[in-house]
Amino acid sequence: MNTTGNIVYTPTLTELGERAPLASRETDLETHIADVLGVLEMEDLKDIVLVGHSYSGIVITAVADRASQRIALLVYLDGVVPRDGQCLYSCVSPQAKAFFEKQAGGNWCVPVAAASAQYLGLKREADVRWVLPKLRPHPIRTFREAVRLTSKSSPVPRIYVNCIGDKPLGQPKSAQAEGIADYHELQTGHDAMVTAPQEVAELLRNVANSGH
After folding, report:
1. pTM, whole model, 2 decimals?
2. Residue of 54, 90, 116, 154 marked catalytic
3. Element (DSSP H or E) covering residue 37
């Protein structure tokens, strides 16, 4: 819980962070969707603001499709906004796809070495020292698998936060914000929660306390 009284949950997707020991070549997009759905169900969360950064924009889109009754608002923090049948590679630049596939080199995960400080938009040495040791290989199937959206219910309201600082691979495309009326910009790199944490926190507090 933060000082404004909002309760914050930070689910970790399978194979990442403290869940790295669960690494498996079977981990795919559906695994990550189930991770977040499981938290919503086990904690019986309702009327929530669900935030997805980067690739996780695909995850929260699918979660909202399946559990819209629990979600008041989606926030895409420089995140991918897919349509039905799209995967991560459908929504990023050809350079980004080539980069990840080359780094994976036929293996079932993208190595940590692919996540350079430049790619993440990290410029401060302190940020680099803090972030890079915490990174873990990312399962490549989650980038290749298309999301399936089937809900017939009213769409969940959405906000897009575009980080307009340096993006060496153009990730994600600003065009992903098309169709989202509530649009914001942050003058920072892709990993805004690291490079501009106060600005991100303030924006999310305002959203959570505004009644959406």
Report:
1. 0.90
2. 54
3. helix 29-42
